[in-house]
C-alpha cells in the first residue's frame, strides 16, 4: 500500500512537469509566428474588454438623446454618437460581449454535433458513413451565409435564431474534418491491438481516437469563430439578427450606412471592429495550424 502511494506521489509531479513542458514548447513554437502572437494578444485584450468594459463606460448604450445625435469624435464621445444620440464607443464595448458570445456559442454547438457525426462516420463507416456524408455534401453545396439566411428566414428574426443558424452551417465542416482524422487514426496498429484486447468502441473512441484528433478541431474552431462572427454580423446587418436597440456590431453598421457620406464615423467604427476581430482570429488560427497540425510542420 505504501509503495503504491509513493509511486502515485512520484508520478503526479512527473506528469505535471510533462504538461508544463508541452505548454512551453507550444508557446515557443507559437512565439515564432509573430502575426499569430499579435492576433492572440489582441483577442485576449478584446475578451478582457468584453468582460470588464461594460462596467467602466459612462454612457448608456440604449438611451436615446436626440440633442446629441451625430456628434463627431471628441473627448466626451471618443467615437462620436449615432443618429439617436447614443455613444458609439459605449455601444461597441457592450457589443463586444454579444459578438464574441455569438461566435463562441455557435461554434461550440456546431463543433459538438459535427464531432459526433464525424466520429460515427469515420469509425463505423458503411451505411452510417454514406448517409452522414451525403447530408453534409448537401449542406456544403450552399454558401454559408445563404444557408444561414434561409434558416433564420424560417425560424424568425432574433439573435438566438442566428446562433442556431450559424451552428447548423458549421456542422458539416467539423464533420468532414473529424471523419478524415478518424479514418487516419482508426487504421493505426495500436487501435487494432486495443480491439484484440477486447476494448469497447466507446473506450477506443473517447480514450484513443478523440485525444489524437484534437489539433485539427482546435484549429478549425478558431478559424470558424471568425466566420461565425462575420456571418452573424451580416445577418444583423440585413435586419435578421439582433434587433434595435441591441448594440450589435452588424446592426450598428446597418444603422450607419445611411450616414456614411456626411457622418462616416457612425459606420466606420463598428465596421472596423468587425474587421479587426475577424482578422485576429484568422491570424491566430493560421498560427495554431502551423504549431498543432503536423502536416504543415517543416
Tally of separate domains:
1
Rounded to the nearest angstrom, the radius of gyration is 23 Å
Strand content: under 5%
- Low-confidence parts: 1-15
Mean pLDDT: 84
Number of strands: 0
Q: Gap between N and C termini, in Å?
A: 48 Å
Largest sheet: none
Give the CATH architecture: Orthogonal Bundle
Overall SS class: mainly alpha
Please work out how many helical segments DSSP would assign: 11
**Oligomeric organization of the protein chains:** single chain
Which term fits the overall shape?
elongated
CATH fold topology: MetI-like fold
Could you spell the SSE succession in H and E letters? HHHHHHHHHHH
CATH class: Mainly Alpha
Helix content: over 70%
Superfamily (CATH H level) name:
MetI-like
Please describe the structure with a list of short key phrases separated by commas or semicolons.
single chain, 298 residues, mainly alpha, MetI-like fold, 11 helices, elongated, disordered N terminus
Amino acid at each position: 500500500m505504501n509503495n503504491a502511494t509513493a509511486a502515485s506521489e512520484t508520478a503526479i509531479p512527473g506528469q505535471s512537469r510533462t504538461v508544463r513542458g508541452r505548454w512551453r514548447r507550444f508557446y515557443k513554437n507559437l512565439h515564432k509566428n509573430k502575426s499569430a502572437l499579435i492576433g492572440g494578444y489582441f483577442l485576449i485584450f478584446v475578451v478582457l474588454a468584453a468582460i470588464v468594459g461594460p462596467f467602466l463606460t459612462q454612457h448608456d448604450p440604449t438611451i436615446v438623446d436626440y440633442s446629441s445625435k451625430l456628434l463627431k469624435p471628441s473627448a466626451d464621445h471618443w467615437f462620436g454618437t449615432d443618429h439617436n444620440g447614443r455613444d458609439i464607443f459605449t455601444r461597441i464595448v457592450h457589443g463586444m460581449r454579444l459578438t464574441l458570445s455569438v461566435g463562441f456559442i455557435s461554434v461550440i454547438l456546431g463543433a459538438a454535433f459535427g464531432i459526433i457525426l464525424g466520429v460515427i462516420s469515420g469509425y463505423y463507416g458503411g451505411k452510417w458513413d454514406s448517409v452522414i456524408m451525403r447530408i453534409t455534401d448537401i449542406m456544403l453545396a450552399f454558401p454559408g451565409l445563404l444557408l444561414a439566411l434561409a434558416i433564420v428566414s424560417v425560424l424568425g428574426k432574433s439573435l438566438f435564431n442566428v446562433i442556431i443558424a450559424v451552428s447548423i452551417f458549421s456542422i458539416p465542416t467539423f464533420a468532414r474534418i473529424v471523419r478524415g482524422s478518424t479514418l487516419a487514426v482508426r487504421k493505426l496498429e495500436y487501435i487494432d491491438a486495443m480491439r484484440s484486447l477486447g476494448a469497447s468502441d466507446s473506450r477506443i473512441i473517447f480514450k484513443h481516437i478523440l485525444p489524437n484528433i484534437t489539433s485539427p478541431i482546435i484549429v478549425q474552431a478558431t478559424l470558424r469563430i471568425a466566420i461565425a462572427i462575420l456571418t452573424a454580423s451580416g445577418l444583423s446587418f440585413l435586419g435578421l439578427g439582433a434587433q434595435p436597440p441591441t448594440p450589435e456590431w452588424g446592426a450598428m453598421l446597418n444603422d450607419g450606412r445611411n450616414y456614411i457620406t456626411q457622418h462616416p464615423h457612425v459606420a466606420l467604427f463598428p465596421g472596423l471592429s468587425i474587421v479587426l476581430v475577424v482578422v485576429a482570429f484568422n491570424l491566430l488560427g493560421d498560427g495554431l495550424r502551423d504549431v498543432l497540425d503536423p502536416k504543415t510542420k517543416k
